[in-house]
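Kindly draft a sequence, keeping tokens residue-aligned:
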Amino acid sequence: MAGAAALTNAVVATDLPDGTSKDAISEAFSEHGQVIKVRILKNNETEAVVTFSTEEESKAAIAAGSITVDGKKVTVRAPKQKAVGKPSNVLVVGNLPVNVTPGPLKKLFAAFGTVTNVTVPRAKESKGKWISKGYGGVELSTVFEATTALEALNGSVFNGRTISIRYLKK
């Protein structure tokens, strides 16, 4: 995928114990190399993106398949590589629930950086109620932040629905 090379040093940890701290995650993953950043996903605090200083370190963590954090075995995998389109700092999020508003969507993506804009187009339903059209736009401050969010969240569950994310075509 174009643009993914910048994130080859990242892994995703799933099934984390409730309330796990960034420090505990960093300490557990340090057996595979130097951890430079840990992002606990706000929509699902049992998942985190762990960024190592090198690709070799992330490959070692992925090869292990699991690691123990706070006494619990957690799964380690590569970020999803389903990006569509040329990398951009603006993402299109599909399959959103009809009742979604910009606030929760912004909170979901804020785990990956500075969210500069969120839009959720709405339409009037037959009963006169305004509902989401099922998609939205999220703008982050950098392409790196958007790519990290896309790779971590594409195919994840948000408010009971499996969301799809792609770059905005410009």
